[in-house]
Task: inverse folding
């Protein structure tokens, strides 16, 4: 009897000790942002995407191909549009830097003039091919581009999440169209399953939901996304297919002289 | 095939997303896998558009254009390279007084070989009939000299001229130090001149052609000498800014008119060599662009209409920015300084705003230069859906000295209604 009592006391002591340790090791917003960043451990990635913009009764369809590569403190990505016809072969090449004091670089290839043209990183704020997404919503964003604050633990669709608030650091304010983002990070996938986007007047602009998570080559990835505008009768569905990580493709795909029809 | 895939995705979506409770119970890729299996070894794309435009002069009773165009393009992609062809078939009733009503044109036809697929990583080789634009400025560039202005219909918009592709070979090599590019046009530019009596025929050319038709003078129009032109370009793309330099040895965009005897005239382009440096810098939401160029022995006309040659130094500084994601502004200041001729200077402007989820774009493109040379275009473009775009335009052009083409075009103001339908 005495032995059982001592054992129970011992177990209680161990549990309370773990609990205290967990409280002491409470994750910060930045810790969670780092986890999200590291969830994609790939060196390179290739995928196809279909985007459907629903606007009232109207449906607009875009098809594109995407490449990305991590290169030291920099991530390069290329998006090439395959449909519809009026934007066919238009390409976006982006260099995103982990160093927040460096502005992101963005070039666009215009097929009608056969010209590659630099546009400012602030160009990522505009609507992405008339969708509810902005280019900045689907591009890589470095952890230190924002200050991250842990808000709470929560659940979304019965899944446990951490909720963090991310606000652009001063050096990056010109490159984002948002005042803040509230990010719901799935504790298992270590990826956002919901993001609320607020403008600089703290009005909710739109909400992104991510789903169809798959483990591809050991990397969790969202296969589908829905971006719902709050004040407009519009939403955009995005679906990724043929996702391949670490294929080791020729990096010349990111060369400017490859931006061609 | 791809269009069928997209249509299937739409139809599938319309019946699927709204019906299910799971927001992710949609599949946008219906039919796509089968399509890919078919085309994985050798991909192709065949696209067609029908375009129509009705242009009515505001200072003349006639129509400037009532063109209907079928535009077709074919892209073959075999992985190691690709082949692209684009051409159009026009019917324009309004031009019957001076040009053909029916016209078939090959616009572009070129092949490209990817070096990375053939063991030459970073090398690109392209050959064929191409439009190639160098320089960083838009609206006006000092090194956009490879293709000739398409004189039968020269105004692309209020601040840019329309250029016609030429046959060329182009090789590019990416290196750690930057991108090197060489281009050679074995037959030079392909100049297309405005027909006699066309509203876009420069006044001086019209006068000479009239005199020739009346048997008073002899006029030799040798506008395409078919002699080689070539150029090299270096571009370095860096974090925050791009830098480039280029040299082009070719012939002037348009022919120079010279008197060869008391009653004989020759219209022929002359050799022209341009050296250019350019740069573009991103600053927050803005981009700054600048170009400088030197052209030796550039042809100019004196008050008597005689041609002589003087060095030309050109400078352009530009700024563009997106405001609130919907408003776009682009301003360029330019200066053309001739050693022995009056300077030309002015600005180009583009200002536009988008509405209704970017479906409607309203704006103005303009150029204002020396001696009131101007062209101003106001436009409204509405994208009805992925297949149909309609537009309204107003265009005002004029000013300049007697030898200026703007002066020649001062009765060409027009309004336009047009559409483009993707089949």
Result:
């Amino acid at each position: 009897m005495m032995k059982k009592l001592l054992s129970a006391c011992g177990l209680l002591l161990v549990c309370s000790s773990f609990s205290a340790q967990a409280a002491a090791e409470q994750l910060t917003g930045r810790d969670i942002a780092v986890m999200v960043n590291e969830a994609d451990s790939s060196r390179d990635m290739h995928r196809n995407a279909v985007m459907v913009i629903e606007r009232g009764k109207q449906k607009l369809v875009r098809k594109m191909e995407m490449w990305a590569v991590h290169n030291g403190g920099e991530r390069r990505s290329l998006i090439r549009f395959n449909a519809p016809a009026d934007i066919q072969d238009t390409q976006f090449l982006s260099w995103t830097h982990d160093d927040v004091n460096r502005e992101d670089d963005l070039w666009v290839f215009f097929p009608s003039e056969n010209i590659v043209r630099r546009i400012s990183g602030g160009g990522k704020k505009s609507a992405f091919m008339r969708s509810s997404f902005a280019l900045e919503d689907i591009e890589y964003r470095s952890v230190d581009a924002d200050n991250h604050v842990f808000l709470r633990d929560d659940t979304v669709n019965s899944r446990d999440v951490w909720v963090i608030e991310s606000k652009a650091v001063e050096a990056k304010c010109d490159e984002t169209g948002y005042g803040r983002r509230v990010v719901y990070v799935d504790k298992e996938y270590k990826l956002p399953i919901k993001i609320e986007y607020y403008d600089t007047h703290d009005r909710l602009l739109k909400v992104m939901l991510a789903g169809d998570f798959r483990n591809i080559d050991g990397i969790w990835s969202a296969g589908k996304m829905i971006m719902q505008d709050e004040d407009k009768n519009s939403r955009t569905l995005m679906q990724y297919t043929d996702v391949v990580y670490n294929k080791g493709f020729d990096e010349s795909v990111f060369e400017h002289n490859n931006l061609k029809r | 095939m791809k269009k069928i895939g997209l249509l299937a995705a739409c139809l599938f979506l319309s019946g699927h997303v709204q019906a299910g409770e799971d927001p992710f119970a949609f599949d946008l890729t219906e039919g796509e896998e089968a399509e890919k299996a078919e085309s994985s070894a050798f991909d192709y794309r065949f696209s067609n558009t029908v375009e129509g435009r009705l242009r009515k002069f505001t200072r003349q009773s006639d129509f400037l254009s009532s063109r209907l165009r079928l535009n077709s393009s074919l892209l073959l992609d075999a992985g190691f390279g690709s082949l692209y062809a684009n051409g159009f078939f026009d019917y324009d009733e309004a031009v019957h007084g001076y040009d053909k009503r029916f016209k078939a044109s090959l616009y572009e036809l070129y092949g490209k070989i990817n070096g990375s697929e053939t063991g030459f990583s970073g090398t690109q080789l392209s050959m064929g009939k191409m439009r190639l634009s160098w320089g960083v400025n838009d609206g006006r560039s000092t090194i956009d000299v490879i293709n000739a202005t398409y004189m039968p219909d020269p105004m692309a918009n209020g601040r840019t001229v329309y250029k016609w592709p030429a046959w060329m070979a182009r090789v590019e090599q990416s290196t750690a130090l930057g991108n090197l590019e060489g281009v050679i046009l074995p037959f030079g530019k392909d100049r297309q001149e405005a027909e006699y009596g066309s509203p876009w025929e420069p006044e001086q050319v019209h006068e000479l052609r009239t005199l020739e038709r009346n048997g008073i003078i002899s006029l030799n129009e040798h506008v395409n000498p078919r002699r080689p032109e070539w150029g090299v370009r270096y571009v370095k793309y860096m974090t925050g800014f791009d830098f480039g330099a280029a040299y082009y040895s070719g012939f002037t965009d348009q022919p120079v008119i010279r008197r060869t005897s008391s009653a004989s005239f020759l219209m022929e382009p002359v050799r022209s060599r341009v050296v250019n440096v350019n740069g573009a810098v991103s600053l927050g939401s803005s981009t700054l662009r600048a170009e400088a160029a030197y052209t030796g022995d550039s042809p100019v006309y004196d008050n008597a209409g005689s041609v002589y040659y003087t060095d030309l130094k050109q400078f352009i500084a530009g700024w563009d920015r997106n405001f609130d994601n919907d408003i776009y502004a682009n301003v360029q200041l330019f200066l053309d300084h001739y050693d022995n001729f009056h300077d030309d200077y002015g600005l180009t402007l583009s200002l536009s705003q988008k509405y209704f989820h970017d479906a409607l774009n309203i704006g103005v493109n303009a150029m204002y230069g020396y001696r009131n040379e101007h062209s101003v275009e106001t436009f409204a473009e509405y994208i009805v859906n992925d297949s149909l775009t309609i537009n309204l335009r107003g265009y005002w052009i004029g000013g300049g000295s007697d030898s200026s083409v703007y002066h020649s075009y001062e009765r060409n103001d027009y309004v336009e209604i047009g559409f483009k339908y993707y089949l």
